[in-house]
């Protein structure tokens, strides 16, 4: 089964799809190792990992290359983050063609103006509903695989209100989106209204340590009809916290320590980096250079 088809099936099944958001190949492999069925690339986390804010600083080609690296590191469907397509419908066409060529099974496409900003920052502005519909139509026209997931994100909820988010969501589905990602959801009542009034799969995101997300458990979201939840920064926030704690512990030590509470096994690093396959290739081809033919 193609990974695009697999991702589409995961979104359409009754069970909620939980997608941790990653920022590099190692974090993607850890998500796969943990048993999650799909991976979300996070524009926020990828940007932060490069030391820049999520404000359209990274280019389309940079995001495509980060996505390509993540795709090649796992055997799971990967949803890329195409932001707002990096411009108008022309840019969207080429953006989607590049994400598809990189092996992504789908991509986010949002209705902010360019340059965009993180969905949880103030000061966002939207393109018109009509322009976003045309961008989605352009995206669908660019794609060779009909099952490629266009995850159309709207930021209208916190700017224009829930009625506008619903209207945009249904319009985006009509234009060719596979799923509607509503940014800024904060209550169960909002979710229930959105899932009942938007006539297609609805996705949301959760951010750790955000009090607005505390009551939104996966089981409750599934009951409310949410098709997919993205954990937008969970992996990076966990990594930041773990690294910060480990570095502070190292400062307190006089030299390094064998401490399972602080460090993963050294061999684990090689394993996740793919050393075993490199050694297999070495045995099969490099070590036989002097063999008779």
Indicate the topology:
Blueprint: H1 3-12, E1 17-22, H2 25-34, E2 39-41, H3 43-49, H4 60-73, E3 78-81, H5 89-101, E4 106-110, H6 129-142, E5 149-154, H7 162-175, E6 179-182, H8 188-197, E7 202-206, H9 218-223, E8 228-231, H10 234-252, H11 266-273, H12 275-286
Parallel strand pairs: 1-2, 1-8, 2-3, 3-4, 4-5, 5-6, 6-7, 7-8
Helix pairs in contact: 2-4, 5-6, 6-7, 7-8
Description:
The protein has 293 residues and is an alpha/beta fold. It has two domains: 3-235, Phosphoenolpyruvate-binding domains (TIM Barrel, Alpha-Beta Barrel); 240-286, no CATH class. Helix content is 47%, strand content 13%. The chain has twelve helices and eight strands. The chain has helices at 3-12, 25-34, 43-49, 60-73, 89-101, 129-142, 162-175, 188-197, 218-223, 234-252, 266-273, 275-286, and strands at 17-22, 39-41, 78-81, 106-110, 149-154, 179-182, 202-206, 228-231. The chain has an eight-stranded parallel β-barrel, surrounded by eight helices. Helix 8 (188-197) links the parallel strand 6 and strand 7. Helix 2 packs across helix 4 (60-73). The longest helix is centred in the C-terminal third of the chain and has 19 residues, at 234-252. The relative contact order is 0.12.
């Amino acid at each position: 089964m193609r990974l695009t088809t697999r991702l589409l099936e995961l979104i359409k099944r009754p069970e909620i799809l939980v997608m941790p958001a990653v920022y590099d190949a190692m974090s993607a492999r850890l998500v796969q190792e943990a048993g999650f069925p799909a991976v979300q690339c996070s524009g926020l986390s990828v940007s932060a990992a490069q030391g820049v804010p999520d404000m359209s600083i990274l280019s389309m080609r940079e995001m495509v290359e980060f996505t390509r690296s993540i795709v090649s590191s796992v055997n799971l469907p990967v949803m890329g983050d195409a932001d707002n397509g990096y411009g108008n419908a022309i840019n969207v066409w080429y953006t989607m063609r590049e994400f598809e060529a990189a092996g992504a099974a789908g991509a986010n496409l949002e209705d902010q103006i360019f340059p965009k900003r993180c969905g949880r920052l103030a000061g966002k502005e939207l393109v018109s509903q009509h322009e976003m519909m045309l961008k989605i139509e352009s995206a669908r026209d660019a794609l060779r695989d009909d099952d490629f997931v266009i995850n159309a994100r709207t930021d209208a909820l916190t700017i224009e209100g829930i009625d506008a988010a619903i209207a945009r969501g249904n319009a985006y589905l009509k234009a060719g989106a596979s799923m509607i990602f509503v940014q800024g959801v904060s209550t169960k009542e909002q979710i229930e209204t959105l899932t009942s009034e938007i006539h297609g799969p609805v996705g949301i995101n959760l951010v750790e340590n955000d009090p607005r997300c505390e009551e939104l458990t996966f089981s409750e979201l599934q009951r409310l009809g949410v098709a997919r939840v993205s954990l937008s920064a969970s992996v990076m926030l966990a990594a930041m916290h773990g690294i910060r704690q480990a570095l502070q512990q190292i400062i307190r030590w006089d030299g390094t320590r064998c401490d399972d509470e602080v460090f993963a096994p050294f061999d684990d690093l090689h394993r996740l980096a793919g050393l075993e396959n490199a050694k297999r290739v070495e045995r099969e081809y490099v070590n036989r250079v002097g063999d008779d033919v």
